[in-house]
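Q: Here's a chain of 307 amino acids. Please give me its 3D structure as C-alpha cells.
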Amino acid sequence: MKTLAPAARKDDRLLQAMGLMVIYVGLIVYVNAAGKVMAESFHPFEVTLFRHGIAFLWMLLLFTPRHGPRILVPKRPGIQILRGLFGISSSLAYFTGLTQLSLATAAAISFSTPLIVAALSGPLLGEKVGLHRWAAILTGFLGTLIIIRPGGASADQWGATLLIVSAVCSAMYQLMTRRLAGQDHAETTNIWSGLVGSCVVLAMAPFFFTMPDRWEHWAVFVSMGLIGGSAHYLLTKAFERGPAALLSPFNYLQLLGATLTGYILYRNLPDGWTWVGASVIVGAGLYIARRENRQRATLLNPALSRQ
C-alpha cells in the first residue's frame, strides 16, 4: 500500500479542516435562523435552554460510551465553569438580541468577536499585540459602529447592544478555550460547556418556560440542539487539523448564509451601511489573521523576518 508523504498528509489535513469549517458555518446558520423563528413563539431563554440542554445530552451520549466516565472529569474545573458561564451568557444575549435585528445584521455585529479576542489576548494571555494589530482592531470597531449607527431606532439599539455583549462573552469563551488547550480533552470541554450552560438556564426556567404543544416546535428545538452540538464538535476537530489563522476567516461565510436565510424567511436584506460596516470588520479580521499567520511562520522560519 502506498503511503502519503508528510507534505501530502499535511495538505490533506488542511483540506479536511477547511471542509469541516464550511460544514460548521452551514450548521450554525441553520441554528441561528431556527432560533430567531422559535423566539417569535417562545422566550429567547427557552430557545437557549433547548439549544444547550439537548446539545449537552447529545454530547454525553456520544462521548461517554467511547471514553468512559473519566471524560467527565476536567483537570481545570474552575476554568471550565468560567468558560461555560461566558458561553451561555453569549447565547442568551445573542438569541434575545436576535428578536430585534435581522439575521444578517446580527451576524455582521458578531464578527467583532475576533477583534475583541485580539484586543484581550495581550492582558489575559500575555500575547504581544503590536501597533498594526491595534490599528486593525480599532478599524474593525469602527465598522461595528457603522452597522449600529448610534442614535437609531431604540429597539435596534437594544438588540445591537445585546449582540455586542454576546460578542464580548464569546471572545472570553474563546480565550478560556485557549487556556484549556492541551489540558483537557476536546470532548471534556464540549460536555462541560453544555453542562454549565444547561444548569444556568434551567435554574431560571420557572420564570419563562412554557411547554411546547406542537410536534413541529419539538422537532425544531431538538434539531437545534443536535445540530448546534455537532457543529461545535466539528469546529473543535477542524482546529485540531489546521491553524486558526487559516480557518477563522471561514466564519465570515455566515454573513452570506444569514443574508440568504433572512431573505427566504422574512424577505429582508441588509441595508447599504450594514454591508459597508461588515466589509470594514471582515477586512480588519482578515488583516489580523494574516499578521498572526505571518508571525507564526516567522517563528518557525526566522529567515522570513528578513525578507
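Q: Can you summarize the key feature?
A: The radius of gyration is 20 Å.
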